[in-house]
Specification:
single chain; about 350 residues; six-stranded mixed β-sheet; four-stranded antiparallel β-sheet; binds adenosine-5'-triphosphate; membrane; ABC_transporter-like_ATP-bd; MetN_ABC_transporter-like; ATP hydrolysis activity
């Protein structure tokens, strides 16, 4: 028993997600409410040590999916495997021990206000019957891990939102779950606190090799923490891939619209002057990976007749991959617009003509 709750230092090092095994497997999961197919045939896998983000608009089916995973909702059909064991279709009693393999953090923290911070963290271990001294030792280790060692005796009411979520994370990790489910865990927090909680989750993911499945409606959360993203719409996964490639080239309308707020946009001053014809074409050029590593603009300048100017844009780094958007104004008189597009497409850049401007103020 004691061995089962080995110290944090005893946890294996981070996993190589490419080589490691599947922790969660969801197969053709369906759950409908009356006429509403809330989850409509979802299949997904989460590998050990990876962070999978599931993103979708309000009502897309995220909560229903995560509730099926933690056993709060019964799927109509389909299967859920956690560490190879099927949890869908189990009775409440059979589910109990498997639930401990699933940690959960919530938007509103769900702490017990009458219990101190250390008691909240130790609660899952009390339910497991671990002796008090060991529970408190483990709680102290976890509070240290989440940066709240000095708040062990405090009560939730005296904590900030970010501190409450740190306690929630410590509690979720108490029973050494196989996977941590996060249900909009940062949605109630301000941007700075959100960043610190996401950094903490990423840190724990990397230090402990913790597998995380999170649902969110914010692309910023996906960008800062996820390895892979699945986009859900009307109960179905409409797109799935590495975060950097989804950011660089979203395939679905939903992903494009969710990304609109954080992908670079043409400055309003230029967008307002766009017309159907003009002296310059305004091109949106999306580049990623190889295309973003090469000296694209200098190659363009030496290869294409006529002149162009960079009006806006830049390169970001997502998961170590360069991902960027450049807005170019290309003179139409030289006939170089079509050639520019061809040149860029040949180098795997995605090009869209947004319109034309005549004055370059
Ligand atoms: N208990 C229920 N009874 C009836 N309909 C439900 C129930 N739970 C969810 N639904 C419906 O199922 C669909 C998916 O809801 P769900 O809460 O899973 O979406 P969501 O993506 O989590 O949305 P949000 O981001 O707003 O929480 C919605 O149309 C919702 O109205």
């Amino acid at each position: 028993m004691t061995q089962h709750f080995a110290t944090i230092e005893g946890v294996p090092p981070p996993f190589d997600t490419a080589l490691s095994e599947t922790v969660v497997r969801i197969v053709d999961l369906k759950r409908r409410f009356g006429q509403t197919p809330a989850v409509d045939g979802v299949s997904l896998t989460v590998r050990k040590g990876e962070v999978l983000g599931i993103i979708g608009r309000s009502g897309a089916g995220k909560s229903t999916l995560i509730r099926c995973l933690n056993g709060l909702e019964r799927p109509d059909s389909g299967q859920i495997f956690v560490e190879g064991r099927e949890i869908s279709g189990l009775s409440e009693r059979e589910l109990q021990p498997l639930r401990r393999r699933i940690g959960m953090i919530f938007q509103h923290f769900n702490l017990l206000s009458a219990k101190s911070v250390e008691e909240n963290v130790a609660l899952p271990l009390k339910i497991e019957g671990l002796p008090k001294a060991e529970r408190l030792k483990r709680a102290a280790e976890l509070l240290d891990l989440v940066g709240l060692a000095d708040k062990a005796k405090a009560y939730p009411a005296s904590l900030s939102g970010g501190q409450k979520q740190r306690v929630g994370i410590a509690r979720a990790l108490a029973a050494r779950p196989a996977v941590l489910l996060s249900d909009e865990a940062t949605s109630a927090l301000d941007p700075e606190t959100t960043r610190s909680i996401l950094a903490l989750l990423k840190d724990i993911n990397q230090k402990l090799g913790l597998t995380i499945l999170l649902i969110t409606h914010e692309m910023e959360v996906i960008r800062s923490i996820a390895d892979r993203v699945a986009v859900i719409d009307a109960g179905r996964i409409v797109e799935e891939g590495a975060v950097w490639s989804t950011f660089a080239d979203p395939q679905s309308e939903v992903a494009r619209s969710l990304l609109a707020g954080i992908r670079p946009q043409l400055p309003q001053a230029i967008a307002a002057r766009l017309a159907g014809t003009g002296r310059e074409a305004i091109l949106r050029v999306d580049i990623a990976g190889e295309a973003a590593r090469r000296p694209l603009l200098s190659e363009l300048a030496t290869s294409i007749p006529g002149r162009f100017r960079l009006v806006h844009g830049g390169i970001d780094t997502i998961q170590g991959e360069p991902v960027g958007t450049l807005f170019l104004a290309v003179e139409t008189a030289s006939g170089g617009v079509a050639e520019t597009i061809e040149f860029l497409n040949a180098r795997k850049a995605r090009v869209e003509v947004l319109g034309y401007v005549t004055d370059n103020a």
